[in-house]
Specification:
Elements lengths: L7 E2 L5 E5 L2 E4 L8 E2 L5 E2 L6 E2 L8 E7 L4 H10 L3 E3 L2 E8 L2 E8 L3 E6 L1 H9 L7 E3 L16 E2 L1 H11 L7 E3 L5 E10 L8 E7 L2 E6 L7 E3 L8 E3 L2
Antiparallel strand pairs: 1-4, 2-3, 5-6, 7-11, 7-12, 7-13, 8-11, 9-10, 14-18, 15-16, 15-19, 16-17, 17-18
Length: 235
């Protein structure tokens, strides 16, 4: 895997640009998230916005993007009416011998909420076709004995979006083999900026955090420190 690296209503009085391609309202640390709708996606180039609308005909497809064109792909999808999510995070870059913190895509992946027909059209018959491909589900074999395109369950995407949309500088992308999981039980974050995130408690950088996984993708996204009082076991 060559990567580098809801349903919710946000508190209306505090806003931030959580992604360069999405305007999101975010909560204060005291309120956490309430449940209801994913924030709208917004193109970084044109300002075009698309609201997330649950649709039984659509799924969360994962697209692999080459040549560092993740933002270009996300903008194109949004400008053509598709809800797309590009996870961004802070990374260290060396410039002229000095380290600089820059906001960059966490993965070379774009997530899009589309129908199967729309998904295949994107990779076969759009200006993106030269640098966008499906990310395949290597744990499933279809009737034609091939791996089908990977789709992510909505509940997992909700946690993933909540964990990454704040662009907290302490959020990390990690290899599961390097994690010290404190339990196999799933927990729910009940308070603070990461409220609503579901995952497993993991020890990273001497702190207890919550690791969020996406089915079929081998790396994890780990939140910032989460106090034990903010965690509730999920039955």
């Amino acid at each position: 895997m060559d990567i580098s690296g809801f349903i919710c209503i946000f508190a209306p009085d505090i806003r931030m640009n959580a992604l360069s391609n999405a305007n999101m309202e975010v909560p204060s640390p005291r309120t956490g998230f309430a449940s209801c709708a994913i924030p709208e996606a917004k193109s970084s180039q044109t300002g075009v916005s698309v609201e997330y609308t649950p649709d039984s005909a659509k799924k969360w497809y994962v697209f692999r993007i080459t040549y560092g064109r993740e933002q270009l792909a996300a903008d194109y999808l949004i400008e053509h009416g598709t809800y797309a999510y590009l996870a961004m995070g802070w990374k260290q870059e060396l410039r002229n011998g000095k380290k600089h913190r820059v906001l960059k895509p966490l993965f070379n992946l774009v997530f899009a909420y589309v129908t199967p027909d729309e998904a295949y059209t994107l990779v076969r018959d759009t200006p993106l076709c030269s640098f966008i491909t499906f990310y395949y589900d290597h744990f499933t074999v279809a009737l034609d004995y091939r791996n089908p395109p990977l789709t992510i369950p909505s509940v997992e995407m909700q946690s993933f979006i909540r964990a990454t949309c704040l662009q907290d500088p302490h959020v990390m992308v990690v290899d599961p083999s390097l994690c010290n999981f404190l339990s196999d039980e799933e927990v729910l974050v009940t308070d603070g900026p990461f409220a609503g995130v579901r995952g497993r408690v993991v020890r990273v950088s001497r702190q207890n955090r919550v690791a969020v996984s996406l089915r079929g993708i081998s790396t994890l996204v780990v939140t910032a420190y989460i106090p034990a009082a903010f965690l509730e076991k999920v039955s």
